[in-house]
Structure formats: C-alpha cells, structure tokens
From TrEMBL:
<dbReference type="Pfam" id="PF01083">
    <property type="entry name" value="Cutinase"/>
</dbReference>
<keyword id="KW-1133">Transmembrane helix</keyword>
<keyword id="KW-1015">Disulfide bond</keyword>
<keyword id="KW-0812">Transmembrane</keyword>
<comment type="similarity">
    <text>Belongs to the cutinase family.</text>
</comment>
<dbReference type="InterPro" id="IPR029058">
    <property type="entry name" value="AB_hydrolase_fold"/>
</dbReference>
<keyword id="KW-0378">Hydrolase</keyword>
<dbReference type="InterPro" id="IPR000675">
    <property type="entry name" value="Cutinase/axe"/>
</dbReference>
<keyword id="KW-0472">Membrane</keyword>
<protein>
    <submittedName>
        <fullName>Cutinase family protein</fullName>
    </submittedName>
</protein>
<feature type="transmembrane region" description="Helical">
    <location>
        <begin position="12"/>
        <end position="31"/>
    </location>
</feature>
<keyword id="KW-0719">Serine esterase</keyword>
Length: 319
C-alpha cells in the first residue's frame, strides 16, 4: 500500500511537471508572437483621372526601412537618432542634402527593429523577430497608404537593409502583385541590401556574384518561438521586378546562405559554408563593401541610384 502511494505520488509530480512545462511552452510561443503581415490593400479607385495634387505633396516619397537594432518606435522619421550608426543613414542623409523636401520627402520608418534570442535564459528583453517584422511592415504600409491618399500623383522609392530589406521587399512584392498600398506604376525603384528573402533571380543583382540565397529561403520551414522563416516571395516582385535591385556581400549569412539547409540531402554541401560565417563581420560592413570597378561602396551606390531616380521623376501638377 505504501509503495502504491509512493508510485502515485511520483506520477502526480511527473504529470504536474509535464503540465507546467507544456504551459511554459505555450506561453513562450504566445508571448513571442506570430508573424502578422497586412493583407491586400486595393488602391483607391478612379485615381487615373486625377490631374493634380496638393502643393504640399512631394514629387517623390522615399521610404527607408532600417535594419535590426537600427530603429525604434517613436524615432523621428526625418531625423532618426535611435542608432546614429544606422547603415541606411549613409543613404538617406545624402539624399536629404541633395533634394528639397518638396522634390523628395525622405522618410525613415520608425519601428521595433529587434530580434530576440528565442532560447535566452533569462529572456534578453528584446521583441521577437515576428513581432518586429510585423510592426515594421505595418508601419511601412501605413506611411505609403497615407501618402497615396493625400498625394495620388507622388512617385515612390523604397529601400531597406537586413530586416528592413525583408520588410521593404515584402511590401514591394505586394505592390508588384497589384495588392499593395500604392500602384506599381508609381514605384520608381526598390533597393534592398542584405535581403533575408533574396532568391537571386527576382531582382537585378548589384556587386560581386553570390551563389547562396537569403536565410529565410535557406531555413524555410523553421518555426521557433517568435521566429518564422517564410521562404521565397511567391511571384517575386511582379510588376516592379525590373525596377528592383539587390546587393548582397558574399558570405553574408543573412543573404548568402546555402539553399535548403534544413534538408538532410543538402547537409554535406551546406556544412562547409558554416565556417564562412564564424566571426564574419561582413553584414555590418556594407558602408565599405565595394560593388563596382570604380570603388563605389554599397551605400554610395544606392544613394546615387536613388538620386538618379529622383532627378528623372515626373513633376505632378499642383492644385
């Protein structure tokens, strides 16, 4: 009888421990957040008949999405200070210096811009990638939606780095599919640096050739608390594909990862590449990464590219 009670007691303890573990795991996933991206946002009907727009509208709206830890909620979109070393400032500041806001309004999307370690104990206090990416996408769609509603003839230049490149690229793909917040023919160009969903074929590649793919393609199907790898963008960039450029430095694990790394049949080919990523700082060096024979760096190239787009953009008639 005593042994029976002891066995029952141990069973209760084990079941209780397993139940507690299950609760912790559920809370872990819930608090880490699911990826939530905006659905199709049909453009305003009848816009083709518009002949003019308010004088307060810019000719071109530049939307820049910074990378992880390079932005923050509430940051000033016209004078970002959350991270003075933010890579995209090397593109947006030169544009602000060259162009009057009436010609080109340069807007840096303020968002969470974090990527927590899902197995950190104690928790690192960062927002999850899912939460950050979802918030960044919503904020990008919001500025485009508001600008288009106010200024139906304004043209757009979209750009982003790292997590910001995933966000800008996703919004561009949505626009290219005809489901975005602005019409595809209003987009002058899209520039993505170190895009985690780079497939190597859907956009024009600038710089040295890169054989790998974005980390989200390499790890497609991976589901961890707060981290959802979404693979390639179905349909690529659609109508804006010919106006989309991507820059990826060889051995940058964010955009140059081995294809299908989770597939056991690819492990033999993927394993040797892991050594390329150990103590490799290339992801943080795009401001000095040279992309052409003239010694132009990645950020210089994007700034020059964007400036050319702005200079050649139409000048809508004002009301």
């Amino acid at each position: 009888m005593v042994r029976t009670k002891q066995r029952r007691g141990r069973t209760v303890v084990i079941v209780g421990a397993l139940l507690l573990l299950a609760i912790v795991l559920v809370l872990w996933y819930v608090l880490a957040g699911r990826l939530s991206l905006p659905g199709p946002t049909p453009t305003i009907p009848g816009i083709d008949d518009t002949q003019s727009q308010p004088a307060s509208c810019p000719d071109v709206q530049v939307v820049s999405v910074p990378g992880t830890w390079e932005s923050a909620i509430g940051d000033d979109p016209y004078n970002p200070s959350a991270n003075p070393a933010s890579l995209m400032l090397n593109v947006t500041r030169p544009l602000q210096e060259q162009f009057d806001p009436q010609r080109a309004d340069v807007y840096t999307v303020p968002y969470v811009a974090q990527f927590s370690n899902p197995v950190a104990f104690p928790p690192d206090g960062q927002q999850s990638y899912n939460n950050s990416r979802s918030a960044g996408t919503a904020a990008t769609v919001d500025i485009l939606t508001r600008r288009f509603a106010e200024c139906p003839l304004t043209s757009y230049v979209l750009m982003g780095f790292s997590q910001g490149a995933v966000i800008a690229g996703d919004v561009a793909a949505q626009i290219g599919a005809g489901d975005g917040p602005v019409p595809a023919d209003r987009v002058l160009g899209v520039a993505l640096l170190a895009d985690g969903r780079r497939d190597g074929t859907s956009a024009t590649q600038v710089g040295p050739p890169v054989g790998g793919v974005g980390a989200e393609l390499s790890l497609d199907g991976l589901r961890l608390p707060g981290i959802t790898m979404t693979g390639e963008r179905p349909g690529g960039f659609g109508e804006v594909a010919e106006r989309t450029v991507e820059i990826c430095a060889p051995s940058d694990s964010i955009c140059d990862a081995p294809a299908g790394a989770l597939n056991p049949t690819n492990w033999a080919l993927a394993a040797p590449r892991i050594l390329e990523y150990v103590n490799n700082p290339i992801h943080a060096l795009y401001n000095t990464f040279v992309v052409d024979e003239n010694g132009t760096t990645a950020t210089q190239w994007v700034a020059q590219w964007a400036a050319e787009k702005i200079r050649s953009a139409p000048e809508p008639r004002e009301e």
